[in-house]
Each structure stands twice: as structure tokens, then as C-alpha cells.
Design a protein that fits this description.
The complex is a heterotrimer. By secondary structure, chain A is an all-alpha fold. Chain A has helices spanning 2-28, 35-40, 46-56, 62-74, 87-122, 127-141, 144-158, 174-208, 211-219, 223-254, 256-261, 267-276, 280-308. The chains are: A mainly alpha, B alpha+beta, C mainly alpha. At the A-C interface, helix 1, helix 6, helix 7, helix 8 and helix 9 of A face helix 1, helix 7, helix 10 and helix 12 of C.
């Protein structure tokens, strides 16, 4: 176990490294990119720009800049170029909002997808199966920004059932918190429900032909017993892997369109603004933040597999 | 120094780039003041005018929108080419794109400042009526710049991007091969101000820093450097007039300022198209007449008070 | 199939697991008696897997209907220039802010003095209405569709070609190519599609890359291609690793065939059904990602239209003119839906266990 953890940490560090280099590299190759000018402002003279450039170290070679930026990030001192805010502080402040958005949405989608996928597989070919699959394939064909915009239009404007935009922190008012987040939760959940229920159904149907199922039935177990005890558990494993990855990425701010459309001050919104402004520090931090979660959940996933299936040995 | 005491105990400033959402919130009285720096979206304007006519008013400000020309390189180093654009530009179209919040004018100095131009003196065509396409086409022929590729720079925020789309289509209708380059508003001015870029033509705006005509005219001074004078205009007559007039009391030389503005328009150093009106738009909680929207500083926070 | 365009990771691996790639051999049509093919004088009709798949597909009426729908959309978009010049009489980027149009006998401004554009007229000009610059939305819808489909198509070609190539190299040669390409694929795979795609899109839109200008269509296509290569590359690699251990590959090696020949003539044909299943899947992903990037301003650049940019522009008018956003949105959904349904049909047709009934 210890070896596993050590090896995972090593690959995590490597990945974070690689991700940060790629992001840094992307922005270095833009010809008109000049963060000194962005910081100095619109009316700055060339001398001011040069001073700023020197103060922030933009006149140094690329790898020195990279090292300095990484150092600043890990000591919690890095500031963004456009608003001069402390990036790490911004992330800390905005993270709860993203968590409020992502965690309930993920729970909703997981539960509903497993339910729908199971029902579909158990009643294959029937009306329930067909309607669920129609809904699922539709859900998978709608881009999230369109869904968010449509939900906002129909349920917050046309029928003023839900508030337009904005975020209310949970400790302040739990009812309002949920009320404001309901539409965003639905936006994220619907698409994943479609996707995951299709995958689960397909896995379940594949499993049904396996020998162990026939053996269990031959032993005299009812369909439901077979399903609950054997089939579902095995089919869920790959779902759990996928879920871990998707969840990790969402925690890192992948829900940026939802946050932007619904005006939720989360990490995604911050990253979206930063990308538009070519503001490198927040993008760097965001990419590494996401990579960190990806590695974390991937490791958790392997641990869970090992616990559930004694044949699996933890590898690095 | 006397600092005015405000009425409000706490002012919460919420920054959100979704202009429509902002406007809706003020309309529904969920927020109190609409940031005048943004345009009220056209889609909501009807609603606002009908439902909130007692708490909405467009207020003129001292600001100007314009397109500047890079005069050190083709095609706009050619006077006729620049003049053709000014002759073809339909200021009414630009105003409509701005939901009607524009006071059309070809001059750089706003009417609220000494020397502010009289739209009637615009040399190419009346800003409030159709442009002069025949003259424009003639000038294009003269210039020999038909078919020249041009890249126009602009911002991505509404309505600036739509202005950019329109301006580019005017260039194309004149015979240029114009394409756009949309730059994020957060980095726009620093991008076009970069000395290495040397852009051919692009959008610009200026809101007054202080109520003096020099504040606007200095944008095209030869020594303004690339950070303000994006087109690198360097006209000796202009520069010396600027210096002379700057020494004098603006009221006394107002007509000369206006004449300098007309001179620059004649030389087509810029295609100014209007002065912005800002929306004074409050929720019904605030005392509308007491709130001050100043020409210089827009919303005066200390004047905001509940009814 | 992209919630936020990040999931779908697992989907690729699962397709690999359920890949019907190895069903060379004798298959029977439903209802046919299975007889011993090695019995004397008996040569039961062996129907190859492709013929069988085609037969199944022909019976799948839903998939066929959606295929027709998809083709109709493609043709309509390709005919955009014809629509623009002969029906609407206006180009996609032609502004008409101060123009007027005759609606029901009344002369109306295309864009009012308050900046409100007209809504759908359902006639030849401004069928779906105008935008804030007086441009014809129906024309832009068709041109935008062309752009979205072209970018999606080119992106898909890049994915299929390079994904297969990388998978083959890693899986067959292992060693050095695997050591270099596999971590590279893992890096792209773990990189949040969002950040990578949008960052690249923004960066390249500003500066272009080499001789390709910033507003070229090839840039979003290239980004989409690169981002999704691991989605195909990883499963192909897995499959190639499995195939290279099979006897027929060993036989080819013994015969003296060179590595490349083996890859192309022995392994690649066995990958074809997996690749065939991936094509519609990747096309749907590509079109959705393009819409996403364009929506954020990191894809197709102004004044060019794509369905993503139209939806984005239309959001500002969603209260007064919902058609501005909803019509391109509906087109996008219908197109992706059609591709998904046809894709499902193809996968079911190629899957030898397609006749599964749960009768336990």
C-alpha cells in the first residue's frame, strides 16, 4: 500500500509538472501577448511598461519566468495580471461555490442514471426501456450551454419559477441556496444521466450472457437476486471509474459555461475570464488543480477496485 | 476639504459581464443601480421604457467612439482611402446597433465640452442622414486602394463587436478585402498599443478625464506614443495648434478647437461616430431625481438614497 | 455525448471492451440451423460479418430515417450559397442595419432605431428574422451549419487517421514509440478538454500558427482533432496489443512479411469494425466541441458564423426574439442526435450479440 501511494504521488507530481509546462508554453507562443502591458494599463508609457516588465520578471528568459511563477503559486503569493488579485485566495474563495454546484449535481446524476439504466436493462425491449433510451440519446445530444440557456429562458424568465442568476451561500440560507442552484444542477445532471444510463444498460446486457449469471440462475436465484448480488456490482465498476474522472474534472472548474450562464462565482467562471483575458496565473493554477483531482480520484478508484476484488493487486 | 456625506450605509458592487442579467435585475428591483458603463440591451429597452419609465433616462456624457487609421502603412496612408471610409460610414446604423444610445457626430470633441462639434459642420455627410456612397466610391477609385487587404481590430463586448462587424462590412463594400480581429476587452487596448503590432485600423473610445478639449485632441498628438495614438498620426500643423491652444483658456478659443477638430476630420485621421448616452436606471427603491449621474463621473455614489 | 466535454473517457474503453473486432468466422442469421461445417460435403453458407451488419442495418428503420435527416441537413448547409444568392438575396456577412423590408404591405425597419431586429418573417428574405447588424439569420444558419460540419468533419478525419496511426505504432512496436506516445496521450487525456481547448483556441485565434491565419477554419479543426486523438488511440492500442499475439500475425511474421505490411494488411482490417463504430461517435463529439468553443469565442471567429456563435449571439435577445438562439440550437441538436442514432445503429449492426434477449 505504501509503495502504491508513493508511486501515485510521483506520477501526480510529474503530471502537474507536464500540465503546467504545456499551459505556460501555449501562452508564450502568442506574438502579441504581453502581460506587462496588461498590468501597466491602457495609458502607460513605454517606460512604465518596461518598469513593470522588469519588476515582474518578464524580461527574463522563459524558464526563469516559469520557475518564478511556480514558486509563487506554491507559496500562495501569485497574483493575476488583470485584477491584481491573489489567485490562490480567489480559488479558495470560489471553490465552495463550485463544490455546491458539482457535488449535488453529481449525486443526482449518479443515482438517477443507475436507476434508469437498471430499469432499462431489466425491461429490455419494453416501453420503459425504449422511452428511457430515447430520453437518454436526446440528453446526450444537447450541448450544456444550450441546455443552460434554454432552462434559464423557460424556467426563470418565461415562467418565473426560479430566480435568474446569482448564488446564495449555504450557511446563509439553505433554502435559497438550493433554490438558486436547482436549474444549474439540472443542467449538469441531464447530460450525464443520458450518457451514464446508456453505458450502464449496455454493460448490464453484456453481463447477462456471462456464465456466472447462468450458474446463479441454475442455482435457483431469482432474477432480482441475481441482479442485485452479481450483475449490478460488476457493471458498476467501470461506471465508478468514469464517474471519478468526470467528477474530478468538474471539481477543477470544467463547469465553466454553467457557472457563466447562471452567474455563479465559482472556479469555472474565474478560469473562463482568465482565458479570455490571456491571464496566465489563474489558468495555470486551474489546470494543475484539475490535474490534482484527476490523480486523486484515479488513485481512490484503484483502491476501491482492490478492496472489492481480491484478485486485483494495487499497482503504481 | 469637505467630503460629502453619503446616504447609503452600505453599497454592494457586483461585477457581472452578463449585461442582460444585470438589466433584468434592476428591472425586477432585485438590484438597485445599473452600471452605466454598459449599454442597456436592446431586447430589454422596450420593457424598460414601458414598465420603468419613471426610473429610466438616457443621460449624455462626454465620451466619443471612433475608428482610428494606421497612417504609416497601406492602405490608410492614402488620404483618399481614408476619406472614402468617412464618406461611406452610416452613423445612424452605428447608433441603432447601440440601441439608440448614440448621439451621432463626426467630431472627436463632445458637445458638452468647449469646442464641441456641431454635427451640422461635418464635411462628408450629415451624421443623421444617409452616407454619401457616390463620393465614397469616387474617392476609392482615386486612391487606387481597391482590393487591398485590411485587418480591423475591435473588442468582443457588445455592441463593440457588432460595431466592428458593421465597419468591416463597410470596408468590404468599398472594395477592400477586410477581415476582423476580435480581441478580448480586458486586453484590447494593451494589444493594439503594442509597438510591434502596427495595426492598420481599429476601434477606440475615450471618456473624458477632465472637461478640457485637449483631453480628447491629445489622442492624436504626434508625441502621444503608441499607447494612445494607435494610428501613429504625426501632423506638424496639428501638433503645433494643439500646443498653442492648450495654453489658452478653452472658452475663449472654443471656435479654434472646433476648427482643429474639423481639420483632423478633413484629414480623416479618425472616423469618430458619436458620443455615448449612458442609461440612468435605478430600481424603484431609490429616489430617482436625487441620484446624480454626472457627465464626468457617471454614478455619484454619495447621492444614492432610498425613497 | 459530452456533458461538459470531458466525460466520455470511460465510453471509449467500454467500446473497446465490447468491440466486435474478432468475429471472423461463421455466423448464422437468426432462425438458421447450425450445422457442422466440417462434415463431409457440407458447406453451409458463410455470411461475412460486414454483409450481416448491412443486413441488420437495413432492417433498422429508425437509424435509416435519421440517416436521411442527417443527409438532408448536410445538403441544405452545402447549398447555403445558393440560398443566399437566389432566395434571400443577401450574403451571410452583409450588414443591413438601416435597411427596410416590406412585411405584409408595411415598410418596416430591419433593425429599429432602438436596435431591435425583426423576428421571423417566414418568407424568402429574413426567414428567421435578422440579427443586430441586419444580417439574415436563415442565411447565417446555413453558412454556420456548413462551417460547423466542415470543422467537425476535418476534426474527425484528423482523429481517425492519427488515432489509428498512434494506436498502431504504440501497440505493435511497443518499445520506444510506446514510451513516447503513450505518456503524451495520457497527458492530453487527463488535461481538461475545456482548458486545453479553450486556451488553445484563444491563443491561436489571436496569433494564428505559422502560415495559417487566426481566423482560419483549420485551427478549431486542428484543436478538436488533437484533443480527441487519445479517445481513439488508447482503445486501438489495446486492441492491437491483443491482436499481435494472435496466430495469424505470427504466421505472417514467419512468412517474412515486414512490420508495416503486417500492420496494414493483417491488423488494420481487423480494426475496421472498431474504427467504424468510432467514426460517428467522434463526429458527434467534434461537432459539440466546436459549438462549445465557438460559444466561448475560442472557436470560429467573427464575423464568420457557426451554430455555436449564433447561439451565443442570440442569448442577448432571448427574451424578445428566442428564435435567434433556439433555431441554431435545434439544428445543432438534431444533427448530433441523428449522428448518435445512426452511430448506435451501426454499433448494433456490427455487434454479434445484437440479438440478445434477457431470458434468464
Amino acid at each position: 500500500m505504501a509503495r502504491f501511494i508513493v508511486r501515485r504521488m510521483a506520477s501526480a507530481i510529474l503530471l502537474l509538472f507536464a500540465v503546467s509546462i504545456v499551459v505556460f508554453g501555449i501562452f508564450e507562443v502568442i506574438p502579441s501577448y504581453n502581460p506587462a502591458r496588461a498590468i501597466a494599463g491602457r495609458n502607460a508609457t513605454q517606460t512604465t511598461v518596461d518598469e513593470v516588465s522588469h519588476k515582474f520578471g518578464f524580461d527574463k528568459p522563459v524558464w526563469v519566468q516559469y520557475g518564478k511563477t511556480m514558486e509563487l503559486i506554491f507559496t500562495g503569493q501569485v497574483i493575476d495580471y488583470n485584477d491584481n488579485l491573489n489567485v490562490d485566495a480567489q480559488f479558495a474563495q470560489r471553490f465552495p461555490v463550485t463544490v455546491s454546484l458539482v457535488v449535488p449535481a453529481a449525486l443526482i446524476w449518479l443515482v438517477v442514471a443507475v436507476l434508469l439504466g437498471s430499469i432499462s436493462a431489466l425491461r429490455v425491449g419494453g416501453l420503459a426501456d425504449r422511452s428511457i433510451m430515447v430520453a437518454a440519446i436526446l440528453g446526450v445530444s444537447i450541448p450544456v450551454f444550450l441546455l443552460a440557456a434554454v432552462l434559464l429562458y423557460f424556467f426563470a424568465f418565461k415562467l418565473p419559477w426560479f430566480p435568474n442568476t446569482g448564488y446564495v451561500p449555504l450557511p446563509e440560507n439553505p433554502a435559497q441556496w438550493a433554490y438558486h442552484l436547482f436549474l444549474p444542477w439540472i443542467s449538469i445532471a441531464i447530460l450525464s444521466i443520458g450518457f451514464y444510463s446508456r453505458v450502464l444498460r449496455s454493460n448490464l446486457l453484456d453481463m447477462v450472457n456471462e456464465d456466472f449469471v447462468r450458474t446463479a440462475r441454475a442455482k435457483g436465484l431469482t432474477r432480482r437476486q441475481v441482479f442485485n448480488r452479481h450483475v449490478l456490482r460488476n457493471s458498476l465498476m467501470p461506471i465508478v471509474t468514469m464517474f471519478g474522472l468526470d467528477f474530478a474534472v468538474l471539481l477543477g472548474g470544467a463547469a465553466l459555461v454553467t457557472e457563466t450562464v447562471f452567474n455563479l462565482p465559482g472556479i469555472g467562471q474565474y478560469e473562463a475570464q482568465a482565458i479570455g483575458n490571456l491571464d496566465v496565473p489563474p489558468i495555470l493554477v486551474g489546470a494543475m488543480f484539475t490535474a490534482f483531482f484527476v490523480v486523486l480520484f484515479s488513485a481512490l478508484n484503484d483502491i476501491v477496485y482492490a478492496l472489492l476484488d481480491p484478485r486485483v493487486r494495487l499497482t503504481g | 476639504m469637505i467630503v460629502p456625506r453619503g446616504y447609503a450605509d452600505k453599497i454592494v458592487y457586483s461585477v457581472n459581464s452578463n449585461v442582460t442579467a444585470n438589466a433584468e435585475q434592476v428591472l425586477n428591483n432585485q438590484a438597485d443601480v445599473f452600471d452605466p458603463g454598459d449599454t442597456l440591451p436592446a431586447s430589454l429597452l422596450q420593457q424598460v421604457k414601458s414598465q420603468a419609465s419613471d426610473r429610466y433616462k438616457p443621460v449624455p456624457t462626454n465620451s466619443t467612439f471612433y475608428f482610428w487609421f494606421g497612417i504609416t502603412q497601406k492602405p490608410f496612408n492614402n488620404l483618399a482611402a481614408r476619406q472614402a471610409v468617412l464618406a461611406a460610414l452610416d452613423l445612424r446604423a452605428l447608433s441603432r446597433i447601440d440601441s439608440g444610445f448614440l448621439e451621432e457626430d463626426c467630431h472627436l470633441i463632445p458637445p458638452g465640452i468647449d469646442g464641441g462639434g456641431d454635427p451640422a459642420t461635418c464635411p462628408y455627410h450629415n451624421p443623421n442622414s444617409a452616407p454619401n456612397m457616390t463620393k465614397a466610391k469616387q474617392l476609392m477609385q482615386q486612391s487606387g486602394m481597391i482590393g487591398q487587404p485590411v485587418t480591423v481590430y475591435g473588442e468582443d463586448r457588445a455592441p463593440r463587436r457588432q460595431w466592428l462587424d458593421y465597419f468591416t462590412s463597410v470596408l468590404n463594400s468599398l472594395g477592400f478585402k477586410a477581415t476582423e480581429k476580435v480581441v478580448n476587452s480586458g486586453v484590447y487596448f494593451t494589444t493594439i498599443g503594442a509597438p510591434t503590432l502596427k495595426p492598420q485600423v481599429g476601434w477606440g473610445d475615450w471618456v473624458q478625464d477632465f472637461p478640457h478639449p485637449w483631453d480628447f485632441m491629445q489622442l492624436f498628438a504626434g508625441n502621444a506614443g503608441s499607447s494612445l495614438n494607435y494610428g501613429y498620426v504625426d501632423d506638424p500643423h496639428y501638433n503645433s495648434a494643439l500646443n498653442t491652444l492648450f495654453q489658452k483658456d478653452p472658452k475663449s478659443v472654443a471656435s479654434q478647437w472646433a476648427a482643429l477638430d474639423n481639420y483632423a476630420v478633413g484629414k480623416a485621421y479618425y472616423a469618430a461616430y458619436g458620443h455615448e448616452q449612458f442609461p440612468k436606471f435605478y430600481s424603484n427603491r431609490l429616489n430617482f431625481s436625487a441620484g446624480v449621474m454626472s457627465v464626468e463621473y457617471q454614478t455619484d455614489m454619495t447621492s444614492l438614497q432610498l425613497k | 455525448m459530452i456533458p461538459e466535454p470531458d466525460s466520455g473517457h470511460g465510453q471509449a474503453e467500454l467500446v473497446a471492451g465490447a468491440s466486435p473486432g474478432g468475429t471472423a468466422g461463421i455466423v448464422t442469421a437468426p432462425g438458421q440451423q447450425v450445422t457442422d461445417p466440417w462434415a463431409e460435403g457440407r458447406h453451409p453458407p458463410a455470411i461475412g460479418p460486414w454483409k450481416l451488419a448491412a443486413r441488420r442495418l437495413r432492417r433498422n428503420y429508425v437509424a435509416q430515417a435519421f440517416l436521411v435527416l442527417f443527409l438532408m441537413i448536410v445538403v441544405a448547409c452545402l447549398l447555403a450559397p445558393f440560398y443566399a444568392s437566389h432566395i434571400a438575396h443577401i450574403g451571410p456577412n452583409t450588414n443591413n442595419v438601416t435597411g427596410t423590408i416590406n412585411i405584409g404591405g408595411k415598410t418596416t425597419d430591419v433593425v429599429s432605431t432602438d436596435g431591435v431586429p425583426i423576428g421571423p418573417t417566414f418568407s424568402s428574405r429574413y426567414f428567421f428574422g435578422a440579427d443586430s447588424n441586419g444580417r439574415d439569420l436563415a442565411v447565417r444558419l446555413l453558412y454556420g451549419g456548413r462551417t460547423s460540419l466542415i470543422i467537425g468533419g476535418i476534426g474527425t478525419v484528423i482523429i481517425i487517421f492519427f488515432g489509428t496511426l498512434v494506436g498502431l505504432l504504440c501497440g505493435y512496436f511497443r518499445g520506444v514509440p510506446d514510451m513516447i506516445l503513450r505518456p503524451l496521450m495520457e497527458l492530453i487525456w487527463s488535461f481538461p478538454v475545456v482548458i486545453l481547448g479553450v486556451a488553445l483556441g484563444t491563443a491561436l485565434a489571436l496569433g494564428g500558427i505559422g502560415p495559417v491565419k487566426g481566423n482560419s477554419l483549420y485551427i478549431p479543426a486542428f484543436i478538436i482533432g488533437v484533443v480527441f486523438i487519445p479517445y481513439l488511440g488508447k482503445p486501438i492500442r489495446g486492441e492491437v496489443l491483443r491482436l499481435r499475439e494472435q496466430d495469424f500475425v505470427e504466421a505472417a511474421r514467419v512468412q517474412g512479411m515486414g512490420s508495416w505490411r503486417i500492420m496494414l494488411s493483417e491488423i488494420l482490417p481487423n480494426l475496421m469494425s472498431m474504427i467504424t463504430v468510432f467514426v460517428p461517435m467522434m463526429l458527434a463529439y467534434a461537432i459539440l466541441l466546436e459549438a462549445y468553443l465557438s460559444f466561448l469565442g475560442a472557436g470560429v471567429q467573427a464575423p464568420n458564423a457557426s451554430w455555436g456563435t449564433l447561439i451565443s449571439d442570440g442569448l442577448a435577445y432571448i427574451q424578445t426574439t428566442p428564435t435567434y438562439s433556439l433555431v441554431p440550437g435545434a439544428m445543432l441538436v438534431l444533427t448530433v442526435l441523428s449522428i448518435n442514432v445512426v452511430g448506435d445503429g451501426i454499433r448494433d449492426a456490427l455487434d454479434p450479440r445484437a440479438q440478445v434477449r434477457v431470458r434468464t
